[in-house]
Amino acid sequence: MRVGVYPGTFDPVTLGHMDIIRRGTRLVDKLVIGVTTNPSKSPMFSLEERLNMVRRETAYLGDAVEVVAFNALLMKFAQKQGASVIVRGLRAVADFEYEYQMAGMNQQLNSEIETVFLMADVSLQPIASRLVKEIAVYGGEIHKFVSPIVCEEVKKRVAETGLKGEQ
């Protein structure tokens, strides 16, 4: 069985993430979505909320996807999952530079696991979780970037936390 890992913070999960997940499932028998917390980012949603969000959004894919929390080196996590492939999405040249460097470092850590880059759909390339949150904080519409349920969750979180910017 060919296992792939698609890691990310998914805060929140966007239509861009979902595009990569759907396409990633075509490359492997099972895609493990590794939800992690990046210490350099301040998440809007807790790890448990993000896990539940990704599980709900990917439920239609059935056994092709497993959503797992992790807090370790990506290559150790991938090895533990029995993965032979890391799936990464690319939106722009800036993503490629960072991802290329990471792939090189990861190869040094474990040369048995390949990194595969998937270009985001052209219509989804500008979407980034960070920007979705920023737009929501300033009262902008985010329904083009996330599913309807995630849209409501983000709006609710913004209202709950009082993060409103000038509108």
CATH topology: Rossmann fold
Terminal CA distance: 51 Å
Strand-pairing-aware structural class: alpha/beta
Evaluate the radius of gyration: 16 Å
CATH level-four homologous superfamily name? HUPs
Q: What is the level 1 CATH name?
A: Alpha Beta
Number of strands: 5
- Given the C-alpha coordinates, what overall shape results? globular
Question: What percentage of residues falls in helices of 4 or more residues?
Answer: 40-55%
Strand % is 15-25%
Mean pLDDT: 92
Q: Low-confidence parts lasting 5 or more residues at pLDDT below 50?
A: none
CATH-level-2 architecture: 3-Layer(aba) Sandwich
Major sheet characteristics: 5 strands, parallel
Kindly report the spatial arrangement of strands forming the biggest sheet.
3-2-1-4-5
Secondary structure layout plus pairing:
Blueprint (H helix, E strand, L loop, with lengths): L2 E6 L6 H10 L5 E6 L11 H12 L6 E5 L4 H8 L3 E6 L2 H17 L4 E6 L9 H9 L10 H14 L6
Parallel strand pairs: 1-2, 1-4, 2-3, 4-5
Walk me through this protein's architecture.
This protein is of the alpha/beta class and 167 residues long. It has a single domain (3-122), classed as Rossmann fold (3-Layer(aba) Sandwich), CATH 3.40.50. It has six helices and five strands. The chain has helices at 15-24, 47-58, 74-81, 93-109, 129-137, 148-161, and strands at 3-8, 30-35, 65-69, 85-90, 114-119. The longest helix has 17 residues, at 93-109.
